[in-house]
């Protein structure tokens, strides 16, 4: 028997105002709850994406952000990010850099998305329950496949909002390594 997942309910400033179950948050009720996303860039400037498990209740089988997950009730953004990255990709050491926080709304849910990126080239071990596949994509490959229904709508919207920041971050990391 699965343990019931509880998510914090928040106001638009991110303050916790209550709690609700996963089911309650994903039934179209529009209860605002927080999530974390992590974009991973490699040394070649490519972006790692995960292919969501076909067993997922939302957007099954679509390519999405490297890591994405809900913040559990009583958990901080940082704790949730570290937990989700460890659970989904087996990564325990990385340096997250906050990119933006925004509200995403679909027919099923309403989320406050806390978005981060990291430059990472180490080993990854995907969780086969959560993820069907994972690979690095060039930004050109992502653009060529936008609007074709292979990415989640949330990923497409978020990618377009942060693409220039990801490119800048990669260039800065490359320059730092060249100076070392």
TrEMBL record:
GO molecular function: hydrolase activity
Keyword Mitochondrion: no
Keywords: Hydrolase
Name by which UniProt lists this protein: Nudix hydrolase domain-containing protein
InterPro entries: NUDIX_hydrolase-like_dom_sf, NUDIX_hydrolase_CS, NUDIX_hydrolase_dom
Top-rank lineage group of the source organism: Bacteria
Nudix hydrolase domain boundaries: 31-159
